[in-house]
Amino acid sequence: MEFKGTKGKWKANKEYGYDFDIEKEGDGGNICWLGFTDYAHEQESNAKLIAAAPELLEALQELMDQQSTDTYEPLLLAQRKAQDVINKALL
Predict the structure, then answer these.
(1) Number of domains present in the structure of the chain
(2) pTM of the predicted structure, to 2 decimals
C-alpha cells in the first residue's frame, strides 16, 4: 500500500515560543502546525514524532518486506534503518 500524504522527508521547525511547524524538507511546504500547549516539554517530542512519520512508515514497510527473505543481511539492514528512524523520532 502506498502513502498518499506529502512525499519526502519532513522536519520540525521551532517557530514562535513553543510552536512547531512541520515542513517538507527542501521546499519548506507546510504540512502542519503545532501550537502552544500547557505541556511545552511535550510539544517538541510530538513535533519530532510527526516529522519522522514518513520515514517510520518506510522503515516498517522495508522491515516487513524483508521478513520473507532467506538472507540475513537485508533484514539486518532494514532493522538498522528502523532503529535509526526510531532514534530520530525519540531524541
Answers:
(1) 1
(2) 0.72
